[in-house]
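Thread: Newbie trying to understand structure tokens

Hi all, I'm a second-year student working on a class project, and my supervisor (Dr. K.) asked me to get a predicted structure for one chain before our next meeting. I've only ever worked with sequences, so writing a 3D structure as a token string is new to me. If someone could post the tokens and maybe explain what I'm looking at, I'd be very grateful. Here's the chain:
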Amino acid sequence: MTICPMIRDFYDETGVPILYMDCMMQVRKNQDLLKDFMVDFHSITVGAYKIMNRLEDVPLVTGYDHKEPQSCAQFNDLFGLGYQSAAVGYCFGENGDHMATPDIPDEKTRQEMADAGAATIEKMVQRMDMPHVVEQLRKLEEYGLENEKKYPWMMSAWNRNH
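---
Reply by user tm_fold:
Sure, no problem. This is what the structure looks like when written as tokens:
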């Protein structure tokens, strides 16, 4: 979302294609792995902490899960044109507009969420075929270098030569 301009700036500066892989794109591509979107999304979030060996950083909490629409829901037609805050500049009007925090009352619940989420992440990563992704990035760099020869006024070509 908000990293996209940085990705483009990095390419223009260096000519090196770097890749930002958005979690939500992978979730959409792998909807068959999800039974209940929000429950599974929260499990994926907690599972990521498990994968990073930081599960204890996920707090045990209750009473913060909410189901009310966001205060900015009247603008969902605009947000649907891109990722919500990347589609149009604005800020949330209420603390609860940010992603709801699920109830995680004890370590057992946290561990169950983490196990389920980590398993989903592992399946998504397998489906991404990372050796293919890396090979495509290598080929994309070659493609970019050829374009720099054809179009020396491109930002990446200019920056490489000045």
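A couple of things are worth pointing out once you decode it. The mean pLDDT is 89. The chain has eight helices and no strands. Feel free to ask follow-ups in this thread.
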